[in-house]
Amino acid sequence: MKFLDEAKVYIRSGDGGNGCVAFRREKFIEYGGPNGGNGGRGGDVIVEAVDGLNTLIDYRYQQHFKAQKGVHGMGSDRHGAAGKDIVLKVPVGTQIFDEDRETLLCDLTKLGQKFVLAKGGNGGFGNAHFKSSTNRAPRHANPGQPGEERWIWLRMKLIADAGLVGLPNAGKSTFLSVVSAAKPKIADYPFTTLHPQLGVVHVDGREFVLADIPGLIEGAHEGTGLGDRFLGHVERCRVLLHLVDATCEHAGKAYKIIRNELEAYDEGLADKIEIVALNKIDAVTPDVLKEQKARLKRAAKKTPMLISGVTREGVTEVLRALIEVIDQAPVSAKAKGEPQGEPDDAPAPSSWSPLSN
Description:
Blueprint: E1 6-12, E2 45-50, H1 58-61, E3 64-66, E4 86-91, E5 94-98, E6 104-108, E7 114-118, E8 149-156, E9 162-165, H2 172-179, E10 197-203, E11 206-212, E12 239-245, H3 251-265, E13 273-279, H4 286-300, E14 305-306, H5 315-328, H6 333-336
Parallel strand pairs: 1-3, 2-4, 9-11, 9-12, 12-13, 13-14
Antiparallel strand pairs: 1-8, 2-7, 5-6, 5-8, 10-11
Helix pairs in contact: 3-4
C-alpha cells in the first residue's frame, strides 16, 4: 500500500429539515388545529482514529464527504428523521488542521478517539410548535438550519518510541532491517528511503517501536530535499537515535548539520534525549575510526557508541540504551494531545549519555 501522510479534503454536514405547516382535517372534527411536524437534524461529520490503518492514501481518491440532510417534517405530527452522520476513519496519530494548514482542530493520539469536525444543522419547527392560547392556528414554520462546510488538512504523524535521524545514506534503513522485521529498500545512494518506515524491535524480552525517516539535508526545516514533513514523524518519539556515517568526510560536521535542522524545526525536537552512534565502523580503518570518533565526540559533547549494521557489532548495546531511555523518558504532552509543558521529573536531554566519560 502506498504511503501518504497528508491529504486535503472537503467536508459538509447535513442541512436540517424544514418544519411543516399542516392542519388536522377530519370529518366531524371542526377545529382540528395545527399538526405540522418538526424537521430532522442534519448529520455530523466525525473523524475517528481506528486500528489497522497506517496511511491516508484513501483520501487521495475521495476528497469530498457530505453528511445526510435531515428529513422535512410532515403532517399528522410526523417529525422528520435525523440525517446519518459520516465518519472519516484515520490512523492513530493523525492531526486535523483548518484550511490555513496552521490552525490545529484536533490531534487523535488514542485508538477510538473521535472529534466532530462539522455539526449538522438543526431541524426547523413545524407549525404545531407555535400553537399557543392566543394563536390557535399558526400558519408558519421554521426552515432547517444549513450545515457547516470547510476544507481541512489531514496530517499523519507516526507514533513510535524511538526515531532514527541522520544524513542520507547514514545506514538508517540497514539498521532498521537488522533490528526488526521491517523490509525497507536498501541501496548505496542517497534518498533510498522515500517514506517513513516503522519496525517493532525486540531486545531482552522487551519490545518498542522504531521509526526511520528519509535522510535529512541542510535546509530540511525549510522544505529542502524531501522537505520538513518527515521531521514531524519523530515529534512524538521519546528518544532519537542519531546515526553518523563513519565513512563520511567529517563526522563532527555531519552531526552538526542534523542538529541544526532539529533546532531550526523547533517543536521540541532539539530537546529530546539523543543517543549518538557512529555507524559503518566495519568500512573504515582503525586510524580513521579513531579520528572520526574524536571528531564526533567533540561535536556531540558525549562519547558516541560504535556500531555496524552489517556485522551487527554494537547493535545490541544501542538497543539496550534505547530501551533504558524509553523506560525513563515520560511521554511528551504533544504525544498525549495535552497542553504543552515539561514534566517536573523529566530528565535533562543533554545530560544523558550511554558511555559518558
